[in-house]
Amino acid sequence: MSDIFDKIIDGSIPSYKVYEDDNVLAFLDLTQATPGHTLVVPKKHVADIFEYDDELAAQVLGVLPKIAQAIKASDKHIVGLNIINNNGEYAGQSVFHSHFHLLPRYEDDGFDI
Ligand code: 5GP
């Protein structure tokens, strides 16, 4: 079954791409909780982290630091960054294609986590 992130991955829904390789796509979240809020998703359709095998874990988790570093380097006002990964409806997941939120933080951004 195709979900909204599958459509972003295949290009049928537009997105602002931040990073792409053979296995992973990163793009700006539609709802910018803070400026630069980015989602990192595996191209392989897995609903959540409970479906990862070691290979997929290495592919997705392995790129998080360099994407986080690129986001931080893009704006001198970024003073921190949260990585958030919701798994399951009860954990706040709303799109059931696994994804990691990279949330840049700014002084006095008022974001309460
Ligand atoms: P979750 O609540 O599942 O952890 O996060 C899902 C995220 O996907 C939300 O932050 C939401 O704004 C984002 N999102 C939902 N639909 C779209 C879309 O069509 N394009 C983009 N770029 N982000 C989306």
UniProtKB/TrEMBL annotation:
The active site is at H99 (tele-amp-histidine intermediate). The chain holds residues 1 to 113 of 141 of the full protein. Residues 4-112 form the HIT domain. GO terms for biological process: nucleotide metabolic process. One of its GO terms (molecular function) is catalytic activity. It comes from the Bacteria. This is HIT family protein. A motif (Histidine triad motif) lies at residues 97-101.
